[in-house]
Amino acid sequence: MQIFCLFHVLYKLKLLSPIGLFRLLTAIYQYGINVMMLLKVAERMHGHKIALADDLETITYHELLSQSEQLSAMLKQAYGLASGKRVGILCKNHASLIKTIFAASYTGADIFLLNTEMSGKQLKQIAEAHDFDLLVHDVELTVLTRQASYEKATLLSYHDQLPAVNRMDATFIPEPRTRTYASQINLLTGGTTGRAKKVAHKPSLFNYLPPFLALLNRLQLQRYQTAYLATPIYHGYGIAFLLLFIALGKKIVITSGFDAKKACDLIKKHRVEVITVVPLMIHKMLNHDADSLQSLACIASGGAELNPKLVAHVRSKLGAVLYNLYGTSEAGLNIIATPEDLHYTAKTLGRKIKGTHLHVLNDQKNRCSVGEIGEFCVKNKWSMRNQSRSWIETGDLGYRDKQGYYFLCGRVDDMVVSAGENVYPIELEQVLIQHPFVEDVAVFGVPDEMFGQRLKAVVQLIHHAALTEAELRDWLRPQVARYQMPKEIVFVDQISYTHLGKRDKKQLRSFPASENPYTPV
């Protein structure tokens, strides 16, 4: 299985030839198994092609490799980075971040990609827990390091006078290439909502081949030249696609932060064919200027659930270009829905990829039958554990149908038990979003004296729409079961979202209750 995947991937990357295999083996011999080896192969294949285009610079693959090697020498000589050392990276999407990832990996140091939305208190907890030898950060995030009372070595990503990645001293001459032990790339989950949990991924020549091959086969990425990485690189979704695009020799467009107007302008300017997004991003871009998105041939959506209304909107404006990706930071990518799958049903996550073992388990940890809702539990070679016997409980609820398609029903802690019935907020959200006057909706459980728990719906109407609670209930009543009818419906001007593009239900819970709570009869 792994040998087949390896040969298939080498074929897709045009490395299954004498010269291609020579380039690969030479890179492995020179650098060892790390992401710098990946960059070296890309440089040999695509040296004079543009690798990165960000807000400040445009560089080729040859320049990216050369500058990353020089930066690696500086990090070794000035900061002592080596195997066993740890470097934290607190940066938004830009070329200096990417150069630092490659350079630090080449030193053998372990890399920690940090969420730029965290607080100073959270940074302090993370820094104390992992004891970084160096922290690379954006200058505008200096306030966080001060709030965290961080006193160890730091390096800015960009600066005109102070030591920074963009001001590499020419006296730091790259050392003779030496093979290094593979460093870990560590993601930190839950870093803005609570104590962060480390998710470690170690570069491997074999473990990541199945998801890599699945993306190549199902998204047909080798067909396209230009990709826009709109999602943060410090998340698993972002770093995975960065390394994939590098391996494929794509021109990668990145920008610091997301703005719908700027994103539309970049897509039009660079004739972007592939983009990584969370659903909220594509929703905002379509509403801003759908005409500027006509070059898109592949929209890879992940990180939050798609709603059927958005699926239909994308298809009507751009055609069959939307893909839905399901994975977690711990378990990696496991399910993909192609445009054809979403045409089968807009609610599906898709089908699992080869190499994924996915069980749907009930509360007694027994496997659920087809159509029965339970928790997704995953085992694969590319998860954070990389052990054949390690199952990961994702915390996501869902089910599988007879055709092998998987469906999401929300998080385990989202489920509401109302008068003995298991009620899933996402099911009511998927119905409410279909109302022609509803722009967005969030549903969650609230306490109820009679039923234990009930649902509450927070609804955002389209601009200038007029709709009363009674009218919405009349429309909803024939479409859902009695126990799914919301106790409360609250209309708001804007549904709030987290920086990850997920509905901020913690904040939405604070909206006042309806004066006329509904009781089912």
Q: How many strands appear in the DSSP assignment?
A: 24
Mean pLDDT: 87
Quickly name the level 1 CATH class of the largest domain: Alpha Beta
Give the DSSP E fraction (strand runs of 2 or more residues): 15-25%
Uncertain runs? 515-521
Report how far apart the termini are: 57 Å
Give a quick account of the main beta sheet: strands, pairing sense, barrel closure: 13 strands, mixed
Strand order of the largest sheet: 2-1-10-9-11-12-13-14-15-19-18-17-16
CATH architecture descriptor name of the largest domain? 3-Layer(aba) Sandwich
Helix percentage: 25-40%
The multimeric state of the shown protein is: single chain
Structural class by SSE content:
alpha/beta
Q: Based on CA inertia axes, which overall geometry fits? A: globular
The rounded Rg comes to 24 Å
Number of domains: 3
Secondary structure tally, helices: 16
The fold-level CATH name of the largest domain is Rossmann fold
